[in-house]
Amino acid sequence: DKAGGPGQIPGYAAHVEAVSRATKYMKAGGYIGIGLGGVSSLLAIEQVCNGESGEACRRIKFTEAGKFAGSTFFGGLGGWAAGTASGPICLGIGVATGGVGGVICVAAIVGAGAWVGTTYGGLGGEIGGEILYEQTLP
Predict the structure, then answer these.
(1) What's the pLDDT at 103?
(2) Distance between CA atoms of 44 and 52, rounded to whole angstroms?
(3) Cα–Cα–Cα angle for 22, 77, 83, rounded to 5 degrees
(4) What is the pLDDT, as a whole number, of residue 114?
(5) Residue 107 DSSP SS3
(6) DSSP state for residue 97 in the 8-state scheme
(7) Residue 114 lies in a domain
(8) In total, how many domains does the chain have?
(9) What are the angstrom distances between the C-alpha of 34 and each of 76, 115, 138?
(10) Which is nearest to 104 in space by CA: 118, 116, 86?
(11) pTM for this entry
(12) Helices and strands (H, E) in the chain, number of each type
């Protein structure tokens, strides 16, 4: 590919390739984050269930499961939505900076979207788990 050839945007192919590589690393990081979230929830449950009454143990199983499910689902959804929205925004930045700025732009926007989804999804899931726990009380 010749940069600046007829009908081509200079640096565009390099930009797309760099975004593709960055996406692979971000996906791997997302899976690592999901694993860490699961381990964190399990440790919280274990800590409470080893030292507390049956009621507290039962409650935290609901709240931690809801928190993990909510943060995982909405974190993925937030990252996907942000990634979709970042294309038009970051394309111009990528072209203007030779690709590097576009990759940084996509990473920042996707990271922010995933963080917002994870944070608020976890809070909502925890509240949902609490409500579900209260509904299952005798």
Answers:
(1) 82
(2) 12
(3) 35
(4) 92
(5) helix
(6) T
(7) yes
(8) 1
(9) 10, 12, 33
(10) 86
(11) 0.75
(12) 3, 0
In a domain, 116, yes or no: yes
Blockwise average pLDDT, block size 10, the chain, 138 residues: 55 67 76 88 91 85 95 94 88 79 87 94 96 90
Amino acid at 136: T
pLDDT of residue 6: 53
CA–centroid distance for 110 within its chain: 8
Q: Identify the H or E element spanning 90.
A: helix 54-96
Residue 3 lies in a domain: no
What six digits make up the tokens of 103?
A: 């990759």
Residue type, 22: A
15 part of a folded domain = no
Structure tokens at 12: 């565009």
Task: Copy the structure tokens of residue 108.
Answer: 């920042």
Structure token pair of residue 111: 């990271």
Q: For residue 33, what are the domain limits?
A: 24-135
> What tokens were used for 47?
């800590």
